[in-house]
Structure prediction request, 305 residues.
Amino acid sequence: MGIFRRGLTKTRQSFFGRISQILGNTEIDDDTWDDIETLLIQADTGFDTTLRVVDTLQDQVRSQGITKADQLQSALKDVLGSFLQFPPALDITGRDLSIILVVGVNGSGKTTSIAKLAHRLKNLSNRKVMIAAGDTFRAAAIEQLQTWGERVDVPVVANRPGSDPGAVVYDATAAAKARGYEILIVDTAGRLQNNFNLMRELTKISEVSGKIVPDAPHEVLLVLDGTTGQNAIEQAKRFQEACGVTGVIVTKLDSTAKGGMVFSIFNDLELPVHYLGLGEGIHDLVLFTPEFFVDSLFDNGDASE
Ligand SMILES: Nc1nc2c(ncn2[C@@H]2O[C@H](COP(=O)(O)OP(=O)(O)OP(=O)(O)O)[C@@H](O)[C@H]2O)c(=O)[nH]1
Ligand SMILES: [Mg+2]
Prediction:
């Protein structure tokens, strides 16, 4: 819980935590609803999700007989919570080798999240983890991943810069299988969702591992930069078309005020958020927990912040 509250300090201070102050101690009227709508939109909750949240909140207010604006905070908290779900466990058990493909636009936090995830799976779940350096675009990308691999003590299969990423994934899959690894996490180069050729390459990469391991990749995790807000929703739709995204990691929520995007991912994309990135360190990847997330968005009178 502590890491959620600390990580989401900016979102809390800029938006949700200010709600009681914004609404004041008045009767609920049209201005109240306008204020709540504005707050949600500004926090990047997205238009459709915002309207649904406000509708549901209005129903609650009616059925519970709430008349004062200052009673709205806890009702809003409940409604927001009802728009989230605890993510299902990653589909990485019950077979010899499971493959997780990690995709996203440039700089969204893929490589860092892979290192954090490898660390989690190895140390918290006690799994044998290997990483494939499927971003062959830049030499620095391969080195960055190798450095992380050393730090978290996980082997990294790589080829030379400029080589075919599909071939790296093929080799890594074969190596992981031969050496009895249980989870292979595949890094990919960042790409813009509207670049047709690069998105097609992703489709191919995603198919390669399936030639060795049936039904692979078992998870396709899209890494979304929390600071990009609603733009990320558009990105997600294109990645879904190219490689069948199964879930999302939202990064950099420590450095942005726009946590509302998480509600939009669940409701507009109907994808689970598995993890949140709340910093640059190896431990700063937390399992998404709806209660902790919503609680951390609101002020609980804690003066220590
Ligand atoms: N504050 C913060 N920074 C993050 C987080 N996740 C990643 N970063 C930073 O974001 C920058 C980009 O991260 P990378 O992991 O290299 O991103 P990438 O998606 O692999 O980038 P490309 O491979 O170039 O597409 C780095 O400086 C990371 O330290 C996070 O949760 N919080
Ligand atoms: Mg990278």
The mean pLDDT is 93. The chain has 13 helices and eight strands. Residues 110-111, 135, 141, 187 surround magnesium ion (ligand 2) (CB under 6 Å). Residues 98-288 form a domain with the Rossmann fold fold (CATH 3.40.50.300).
